[in-house]
Amino acid sequence: MMALVKVTARDIKIGAPIDFAIYSASGRLLLTRGHCVQSDSQRERILAVGFRDPDVGRAEQVGAAGKLLISTGKHAAAAMDNSVTTSIPAALPKTLDGLQVTLIGREGRPLRTGFVGAIRGDALILTPSSENEPMTIGAEVECKALLGRKVYKFSSKVIGTSETPVKLVYLAYPNVVQTHVVRKHVRLSTDLAGRLIRNDVVAAGFDAVVENVSLGGVALRLSDALLNVGEHFKLALRLRADGKLHAVVFNCIARNTRRCADGAILVGAEFSSQTVETVALLRLHLLETATDSAG
């Protein structure tokens, strides 16, 4: 086992990639080289438990930090939108918005499961959907999940199943979790054609293009000023989720409008009073889009 030294405060700068791997006191890898620390709380946690290889030159770390300071704005944006980090098991949240499971060595779409909960350090508990092929004990899997602004990715294996009182699958708790920060509120860029339906107009609707979408709302591009701020309307879309196209109607409230340079009107709208089924489809659409796993 290599000789390790305690990580110090000058070793880690928020927003700057670390130039060495960080280990626990027992030598277990916690963070890989190139990880970007995003917050004071994460930095303090690393300082409390982290060790490093003393043979890795500190001069390289200083040089990397100097390069970062040349273009702080650009690198800060990249850290928000595109960072992929490796974190300790405690970084996996207690709840997840569903979980996609890919059986290693088998063809086909990822399997959609329901996340029940976790026994920290031991197991993740899932409910398989009825159309899923059985996950047998010992099968190795790759998992992806979405929660808030983050996509989580990790490897595991099936360690148990049960049939009663409900069907459950148990996965080994992951040793390492990769975290991809999408952006705040997970607003994904799209180019979806839709129909805007005003509540006070008897018509088939107006053409609209959805430029981005989140669980909370959308940004619409319209050819004319069709909506007033505060106006309630409906938006009909066809969302791809679970390998199919679904016709969905969202209840919306216009929150802001502005005219673009090309004369089009951009509308920021908030979703309101959605059904459980509609929210579930939108969540699955966002997950598949964010993880590039749409069927």
Automatic annotation (TrEMBL):
<dbReference type="Pfam" id="PF07238">
    <property type="entry name" value="PilZ"/>
</dbReference>
<keyword id="KW-0975">Bacterial flagellum</keyword>
<feature type="domain" description="PilZ">
    <location>
        <begin position="183"/>
        <end position="284"/>
    </location>
</feature>
<feature type="domain" description="Type III secretion system flagellar brake protein YcgR PilZN">
    <location>
        <begin position="100"/>
        <end position="174"/>
    </location>
</feature>
<dbReference type="InterPro" id="IPR012349">
    <property type="entry name" value="Split_barrel_FMN-bd"/>
</dbReference>
<dbReference type="GO" id="GO:0035438">
    <property type="term" value="F:cyclic-di-GMP binding"/>
</dbReference>
<protein>
    <submittedName>
        <fullName>PilZ domain protein</fullName>
    </submittedName>
</protein>
<dbReference type="Pfam" id="PF12945">
    <property type="entry name" value="PilZNR"/>
</dbReference>
<keyword id="KW-0973">c-di-GMP</keyword>
<dbReference type="InterPro" id="IPR009875">
    <property type="entry name" value="PilZ_domain"/>
</dbReference>
<keyword id="KW-0547">Nucleotide-binding</keyword>
<dbReference type="InterPro" id="IPR009926">
    <property type="entry name" value="T3SS_YcgR_PilZN"/>
</dbReference>
